[in-house]
């Protein structure tokens, strides 16, 4: 298991954290502002794994593209808990983006966003817009 506890990032054009290995990543007590993706499971690594990502007690400040991106075809899962989104009244930041990952190096295809009860797990009470 990998744990990121505390800290923050600002002005990241693309990914703040990229998860290339196998297993579980827990990000807690973190702040991110003006970012591409907070966490992305590697979409086109030559060796792919099933990954579990938990985002817990995190502050997200717009602008941003996506909080977490996973490869649902490899069994990845993501859970969001106590995530506070600031300055995004239009709800443009994607909460959880599901991709079809590959091991060929090609750009992965986006399959959908938001909670689906399987790969992306969270309820509206897990997110607050401030």
UniProtKB/TrEMBL annotation:
The keyword 4Fe-4S does not apply. The keyword Calcium applies. Residues 96-130 are annotated as: Disordered. It comes from the Bacteria. Keywords: Calcium, Lyase, Secreted, Signal. It catalyses: Eliminative cleavage of (1->4)-alpha-D-galacturonan to give oligosaccharides with 4-deoxy-alpha-D-galact-4-enuronosyl groups at their non-reducing ends. Its main location: secreted. Gene3D superfamilies: Single-stranded right-handed beta-helix, Pectin lyase-like. It is an enzyme of class 4 (lyase). Its EC number is 4.2.2.2. Its cofactor is Ca(2+). Residues 121-130 have a biased composition (Polar residues). InterPro entries: Pectate_lyase_PlyH/PlyE-like, Pectin_lyas_fold, Pectin_lyase_fold/virulence. It is found in: Secreted. Pfam families: Pectate_lyase (PF03211). Belongs to the polysaccharide lyase 3 family. Catalyzes the depolymerization of both polygalacturonate and pectins of methyl esterification degree from 22 to 89%, with an endo mode of action. In contrast to the majority of pectate lyases, displays high activity on highly methylated pectins. This is Pectate lyase. It comes from Streptomyces shaanxiensis.
């Amino acid at each position: 298991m990998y744990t990121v506890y505390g800290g923050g990032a600002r002005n990241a054009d693309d990914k703040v954290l990229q998860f290339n290995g196998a297993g579980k990543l827990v990000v807690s007590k973190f702040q991110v502002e003006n970012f591409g993706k907070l966490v992305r499971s590697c979409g086109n690594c030559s060796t792919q794994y099933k990954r579990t990502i938990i985002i817990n007690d995190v502050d997200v400040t717009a602008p941003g593209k996506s909080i977490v991106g996973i490869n649902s075809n490899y069994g990845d899962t993501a859970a969001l808990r106590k995530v506070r989104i600031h300055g995004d009244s239009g709800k443009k930041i994607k909460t959880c983006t599901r991709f079809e990952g590959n091991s060929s190096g090609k750009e992965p295809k986006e399959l959908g966003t938001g909670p689906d009860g399987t790969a992306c797990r969270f309820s509206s009470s897990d997110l607050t817009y401030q």
